Amino acid sequence: MKTFRFITACVAVGLIANAAQAGVSVNLGGGWQASFADETLVSVVVDSIGSDYIAIEISKDFTQPPNEAGIFPGIDITFTQVAGDAVTVPNIVILDESVTNLTGTDWTDYHMNLLSDGIAWFDVADSAGFSMLPFAFSSFSDPGNVFGDPNKATALDAVGGVVFNNASFFPGAGNGELVISVDLASGKDGASFVLEQIPTPEPATLALLAMGGLLLRRRRTA
The domain containing residue 118 runs over which residues? Predict the structure, then answer.
């Protein structure tokens, strides 16, 4: 699937106007709404809408450090169907993203997960060329075997690279699209799913966090 990349000015203005408060729900068009917790950390811009897709760009700033277990708080975008099946497009296409690391530590992995009740998946064939540079290796999977179909994935994992603190990386930039397909005929009223993204800190940071957590537990039990 290839889409036309053009920004519709009136759509972009509408997105900015609707994102005036924290904890926003943005009407994307094509029968879809996007919701996220903080408009200072996340933005979604519509490039184009076709007969069977909506093409978007996403920007995310990660600012919170990892916890003692080395886990970053993920940044979620919830996509919700707000129109009838007949006028809702079944594919949400991410053309590219801008992801900025403001967490105080370097990243060595990056993960995208689709959380749904078995109605949304990454189309592996249509997303095969989606760039995850600077990570050298990326792979699709369905860890929970939700679909039992090699072309339907619920996870995209990228490894073999580094995103340094205070740097950005750009999934999809210059190569490929990430296609999310939705089963609008699932019988569920108003389809909804979550796109979750989580980085992983470098091993040295993980080791320090683990050591700190161990020392803290020893002090608590002393």
Answer: 9-221
